[in-house]
Amino acid sequence: MIVERTSAGRIAAKARGVRFGPSPALSAEQIAHARKLIHEDKKPVAEIARLFGVHRATLYRALDGAASES
């Protein structure tokens, strides 16, 4: 009974457009800004990651994810 109600609530939330999971660490604007700093200003990725308060791996994943979505 509880499982059924939970499942129904999850389905209803998805229908309303609710996103599950943790929120993204970087916004699309931040990713675009990071890409500009890397390519145009030749800043090191570690420095950009510190600027945004994320780990280098997080920045690399965000850049890779944004590239594959385009």
From TrEMBL:
InterPro entries found in the cross-reference section: Homeodomain-like_sf, Resolv_N, Resolvase_HTH_dom
Transmembrane segments: none
One Pfam family it belongs to: HTH_7
GO molecular function: DNA binding; DNA strand exchange activity
Alphabetical list of CDD domains matching this protein: HTH_Hin_like (cd00569)
Domain called Resolvase/invertase-type recombinase catalytic: residue spans: 1-17
Protein name in UniProt: Hin recombinase
